[in-house]
User: Which sequence fits this backbone?
């Protein structure tokens, strides 16, 4: 890996959206031409694709949500973003990317092994998903007859990344609303500083088709833990193909906006030095987990980290990876903090964590999987007409556990749900929460 | 002035000891026994208007016992229910815990007191339980702690560890003003600053059992053999279930030196019972026990063995069986028990 | 061990906790006797936390 260098995001806010004759971005209004969008998804495994916008506050429920991508580009055609998917994985991902903030390309529909995930654009559940706050270009699809599902998945992924670039390209000539500049991690300007060196360690699920995560276009399965320049995340280095546990999903858009990296960057030079990022697979076998955890901890020690914030991907199985890594770090004298979703049952009295760490005891709660919420009826549903989970029309009022709400227990740390007490209770009295 | 109903077992209301443990639930006006001191401590804002009592065996073992107790409790129109202190008494702790869980579920604030090691503690659901000493010798310190907890619960406060709360605190989901990532950075800085206890998720507590002291001289001791291997006389006269057992049974070993195939069998549904049925002593090692008894290596084998089926047993039932076996064995001559587990 | 029982003697199989069908008659009985003796040693030993007594 190259020495990390400074990086920047040129941010263009999206305040209004629509479909139109040409794809354009003007004064915060993003318009997409249906034909341009269709072209991104031209593939023999897809019989048809349709596009709808859904905006925050709409009485719309999106079901069967798959991946979501934030429109980004470094130059016409992408110029290196989403390396490995749109063009080769270059040695140096682009250091400056344009971001259409407030928009997302969201694929919704059936794929095997995909657990049904819900996003409400209004009501009490809206604040609990990152997609509740974005203008979503929802991509619905029909697979071609006899097309293998793996091919459908690949076509959807490639198409959504291409569409994300297409949208961001429309803003290339617009003056940005904000320029965000980031020091490299590690930062040579703070090399001799007393501030503690704090890094992130991101675990990626690697369980094969429909439960896989890609780094530079390749599945991370079988890889060893590695340092990754955080700026590469901004360029779309990590793309999600993982469709399990809806509330625990780490969609591409959240990797692009890595919450832990953002939180560390915010304190860089203040009370810590943001020192870097390690990514690691999550092997399914016990021996693999142990091996990878030892490797990850050794890598962190070699990199000189004083503390590491560890995130996971998945449910109870992934807690095992978390526990091993956190304990391995502590055993090497590195302070470890982990983000965990709790599975404490509907009344909160069950044991919260399946496999907790033994010596690294600092854990952040991202909320209770089993907490139930009453959702109001909606006027429109995208992604499907029925919520298969309850066999009811998708627009109906329904009670659901938080477990079904897309990325609500965000293992990457996006969410504000917690079981840690003294915060506003999450209610479902029809008012927007928070 | 709020109305408190106090739950005590048969011993603390002065009815009797083990001999009265089968007593059905009764209600008495005002405070009784240690309730008088408790009443003084919580007055004048709160008054114990009634005391409900039940025998420990009845409360912990009879189906619907807690419902009967609750009926008496509710008849006294309480604003709050207090149970105990139960110290380390297992059946009493079980009753207190189940009562405060039931009261809370019925919408009446409740608080119990018992020692943190009391096996009944886990049955309180999300209802608050505060620590007491291990024996009634500590009543003098346990009552003031309970009184403070009563006042706090009456105010609507949620008790925490700082209030002496023990047992599981239910996890309540709420919306923070900061993302989990921001909270992780804050927690990291705390840990780097030396705070090794800060966490948003407490480590799980496993049922803590204080080990019994060792026996002085095994050669003098009566040893009980107990099992969850479902071993019963061949006809299964007690109808022991193969799974999700709701009962346990006792069968005599008097005058028996070996368990013959065909006379005994395992009804356990969780494994293949062929080996056990071919030789029942693969579940209960009676031949070895009798040999050791004859040689004087142990005093004697207890005249009965205890059995249940450990297959999908609910945690609540398993806990109750353990508490009841311990209580029973305490009253027998046995001073050691060997449990064969499948 | 995590279950919390203070004194534990591990045995050879779930369907035969005090047996070993791979052994012939007398050998199995002798093994069973040693198992029970080990259990008796355990109850005569002070422990402070879950402790395994290998047979």
Assistant:
């Amino acid at each position: 890996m190259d020495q990390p260098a400074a990086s920047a995001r040129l941010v263009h806010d999206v305040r209004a959206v629509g479909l139109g004759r040409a794809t354009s971005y003007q004064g915060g209004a993003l318009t997409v031409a249906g034909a341009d969008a269709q072209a991104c998804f031209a593939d023999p495994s897809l019989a048809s694709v349709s596009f709808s916008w859904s905006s925050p506050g709409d009485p719309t429920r999106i079901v069967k949500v798959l991946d979501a991508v934030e429109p980004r580009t470094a130059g016409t055609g992408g110029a290196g973003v989403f390396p490995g998917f749109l063009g080769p994985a270059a040695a140096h991902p682009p250091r400056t990317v344009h971001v259409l903030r407030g928009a997302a390309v969201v694929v919704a529909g059936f794929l095997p092994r995909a657990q049904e995930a819900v996003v409400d654009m209004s009501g009490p559940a809206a604040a609990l998903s990152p997609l509740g706050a974005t203008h979503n270009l929802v991509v619905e699809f029909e697979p071609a007859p006899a097309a293998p599902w793996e091919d459908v998945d690949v076509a959807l992924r490639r198409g959504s990344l291409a569409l994300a670039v297409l949208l961001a390209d429309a803003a290339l000539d617009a003056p940005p609303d904000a320029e965000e500049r980031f020091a490299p991690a590690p930062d040579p300007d703070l090399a001799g500083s007393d501030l503690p060196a704090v890094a992130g360690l991101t675990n990626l699920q690697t369980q094969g088709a429909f439960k896989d995560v890609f780094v530079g276009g390749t599945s991370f399965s079988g890889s060893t833990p590695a340092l990754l320049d955080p700026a590469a995340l901004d360029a779309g280095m990590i793309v999600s193909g993982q469709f399990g546990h809806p509330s625990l999903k780490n969609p591409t858009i959240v990797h692009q906006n890595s919450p832990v990296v953002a939180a560390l960057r915010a304190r860089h030079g203040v009370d810590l030095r943001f020192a870097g990022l390690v990514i690691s697979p999550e092997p399914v076998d016990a021996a693999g987990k142990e091996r990878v955890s030892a490797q990850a901890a050794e890598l962190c020690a070699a990199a000189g980290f004083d503390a590491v914030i560890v995130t996971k991907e998945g449910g109870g199985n992934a807690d095992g990876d978390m526990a091993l890594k956190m304990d391995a770090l502590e055993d090497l004298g590195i302070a470890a903090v982990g983000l965990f979703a709790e599975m404490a049952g509907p009344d909160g009295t069950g044991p919260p964590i399946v496999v907790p760490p033994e010596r690294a005891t600092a854990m952040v709660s991202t909320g209770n999987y089993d907490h139930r919420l009453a959702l109001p009826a909606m006027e429109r549903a995208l992604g499907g007409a029925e919520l298969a989970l309850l066999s009811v029309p998708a627009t109906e009022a329904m009670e659901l556990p938080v477990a079904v709400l897309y990325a609500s227990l965000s293992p990457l740390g996006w969410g504000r749900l917690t079981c840690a007490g003294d915060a506003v209770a999450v209610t479902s009295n029809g008012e927007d929460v928070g | 002035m709020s109305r408190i109903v106090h739950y005590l077992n048969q011993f603390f209301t002065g009815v009797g000891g083990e001999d009265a443990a089968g007593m059905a639930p009764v209600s008495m006006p005002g405070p009784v026994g240690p309730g008088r001191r408790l009443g003084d401590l919580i007055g004048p804002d709160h008054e114990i208007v009634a005391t409900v009592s039940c025998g420990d065996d009845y409360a912990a073992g009879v189906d619907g016992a807690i419902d009967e107790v609750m009926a008496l409790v509710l008849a006294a129109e309480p604003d709050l229910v207090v149970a105990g202190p139960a110290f380390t008494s297992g059946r009493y702790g079980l009753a207190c815990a189940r009562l405060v869980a039931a009261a809370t579920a019925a919408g009446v604030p409740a608080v119990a007191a018992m020692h943190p090691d009391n096996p009944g503690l886990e049955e309180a659901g999300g209802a608050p339980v505060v620590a007491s000493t291990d024996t009634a010798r500590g009543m003098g310190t346990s009552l003031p702690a309970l009184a403070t907890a009563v006042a706090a619960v009456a105010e609507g406060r949620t008790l925490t560890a700082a209030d002496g709360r023990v047992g599981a605190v239910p996890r309540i989901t709420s919306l923070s003003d900061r993302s989990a990532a921001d909270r992780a950075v804050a927690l990291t800085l705390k840990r780097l600053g030396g705070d090794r206890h800060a966490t948003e998720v407490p480590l799980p507590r496993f049922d803590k059992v204080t080990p019994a002291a060792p026996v002085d001289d095994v050669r003098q001791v009566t040893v009980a053999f107990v099992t969850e291997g479902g071993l019963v006389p061949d006809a299964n006269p007690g109808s022991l279930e193969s799974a999700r057992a709701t009962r346990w049974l006792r069968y005599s070993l008097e005058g028996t030196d070996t368990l013959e195939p065909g006379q005994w069998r395992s009804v356990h549904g969780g494994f293949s019972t062929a080996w056990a049925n071919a030789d029942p002593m693969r579940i209960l090692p009676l031949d070895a026990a009798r040999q050791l008894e004859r040689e004087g290596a142990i005093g004697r084998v207890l005249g009965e063995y205890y059995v249940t089926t450990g297959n999908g047993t609910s945690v609540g039932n398993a806990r109750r069986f353990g508490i009841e076996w311990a209580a029973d064995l305490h009253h027998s001559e046995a001073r050691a028990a060997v449990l064969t587990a499948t | 061990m995590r279950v919390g029982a203070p004194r534990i003697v591990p045995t050879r199989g779930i369907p035969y906790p005090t047996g070993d069908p791979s052994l012939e008659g007398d050998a199995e009985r002798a093994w069973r006797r040693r198992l029970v003796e080990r259990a008796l040693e355990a109850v005569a030993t002070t422990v402070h936390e879950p402790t395994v007594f290998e047979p």
Notes: The two ends of chain A are 41 Å apart (CA to CA). DSSP finds seven helices and 29 strands in chain A.
